[in-house]
């Protein structure tokens, strides 16, 4: 299928302190957040230099730029979006990857314990819309394709939002105003939160229905997201939208993502040694920049630009930036190297291992140590160190992997020859993402220190005059989750 459409960017809105806030404290009436998937922090100054009159350059003139922003660890799209909309890291949210594992928690004997939430959950992922009921909430997901969980002695189908252990900004905002979100698979239904009620409208065309190595086709796909943004600003609802309630105006909170940059990075990347943008990556960035300009123009036309906080904050980066570092290592070599029964290996520019028997941990680590050269292993994280680094305790939490393998920079565990970069890992290339907030009332500022994209969620609530403590991640996460600096 060839789509003649356009692309989108996912941004995220950031703001003020964590003191108790009432509705009268709201500085903004709307938050629009976008993720430009794949866009590194290092890409932004290069792009602004190349396009000083573009939309991104314009937004930065009245905004805060966070050069040290880090997304989730690991940096897969699923935990990346959870970081942004809930403020929770994987150990708290239970979301490690779109391809995770459930162990004993998912104790339905006739069902796999793998917990996969990607295009395989669709009725037919070769089509943009394959559901018999595309406008029903969750209607684009085939229940027969879902993982199952044992609940009160009964095996039930587990929708993506039911897998999430913490609430989201959409759930907090929805009682106070309408909400909307768009992303690349129906499985991003997850952002609704555990209640399933966080979105007024959700728009989830399937990206796998187009050629995901073709920048032109992905720009066409992304245009669907852009048109959804423009429709929402106009108070309209695109066809095939999952509707919990019809929009009555501009949503209080809305957002989505752009895929074009990520696809261009994976398929074409950067110029060797200089890491300048390739022509294909420039095409993708031009599309995203122009699309953000259309969103700004639409907000201005509705006289709500000054009332809207715009956030652009990527879910993930891409490894490697320098294509000369790229190296493929067959992911199928990992489990045999461990020398024990491995229930699941999830691998990109990181490898997560869930062992069938945790008593085999020492033997598995010893086997991997012997295979360091073959697997290009930089680090093996397990045991006390896994817990000390904040990844959780696999002995207590069935979602936590028993072992995390960190490969050398540039190594991707894959047999595919269709890509030269990937995300999901712990490297700076995958985690140091573009992140900025903008509004005409803000004065240009740059923050070089480290911040987390998890800080976006409480910032958004504060910006809208809501209490960040309504987030489970803030309520139960201690004092280490604050709003973004500058607010």
Automatic annotation (TrEMBL):
The record's listing under InterPro entries reads: Alkaline_phosphatase_core_sf, Phosphodiest/P_Trfase
Q: Does the keyword Signal apply?
A: yes
Where does the signal peptide begin and end? 1-23
Q: Which UniProt keywords apply?
A: Signal
Quote the protein name from its UniProt record.
Type I phosphodiesterase
